[in-house]
Amino acid sequence: MDASPTMPKSKAEHVAQRLLDKIITAGLAPGSSFGTEAELLTQFDVSRPTLRESLRILESQGVLELRPGPRGGIMVRKPSTDILAHGLSVYLRLHDVPFIAVLKAREVIEPALASEAAINGTEEDFDELEASIRRMKAIDKDQTAFIEENRIFHSIIARASGNKVLETFWQTISILATGEHHGVRYSFGNQQHVIEAHQGILDACRARDNKVAAAKMEAHVTELEHLVRKRYQNLLTQPTRVVGRQGRRIA
């Protein structure tokens, strides 16, 4: 089967690629100035409308921040996972990928992260996990706080894995897979199960038992699917929700 033809790049897209190459080769750190519009017009020998469109492309990718005003300018940024999650959610929504597929992806990724965290994590990582569990125990009925602390625990596991690619995949998927954007809520009993599961995962990591850590994480993340099947079964086949650039549901 022939591959779909690739759309030719516009001039602005070509210039955006050249601008990105300059950022990378110059090793510009986040927060660095990328120069003025006048300087870039001279360096790249393009029209003002083309340059501005190129800058907006990189801004939409999270590479640049265009700050207005006398103290503003063109500043270098690092793309956030919120931007990746937004792009992925749009792609999945337009391809009618159901929420259950996102849950299944999480169930594949997270046990691998827990296994790697048990091997590569530091005692400082494990202390952070312990602190997260303590904070979670102190949360009463605040669903937003509970969901956020749950995400913090899993983000520490992802970071402790030492695998930046898997960590990035998880950070992107986790924004879509919490169930929050689909209206899923945790009862008090559900919250206690989550806390117990987190403690078991931490204990396995401290013991450097990667197989147990992976097994406990697998059991833990499948609990969300079981919860959805039991109480929100209609969500399983619903298309993935689109989230905004700050991780909030927008459609």
TrEMBL record:
InterPro entries, A to Z: GntR_C (IPR011711), TF_FadR/GntR_C (IPR008920), Tscrpt_reg_HTH_GntR (IPR000524), WH-like_DNA-bd_sf (IPR036388), WH_DNA-bd_sf (IPR036390)
Keyword set includes DNA-binding: yes
Domain of life: Bacteria
Keywords assigned by UniProt, alphabetized: DNA-binding, Transcription, Transcription regulation
GO MF annotation, one: DNA binding
Protein name from the UniProt record: GntR family transcriptional regulator
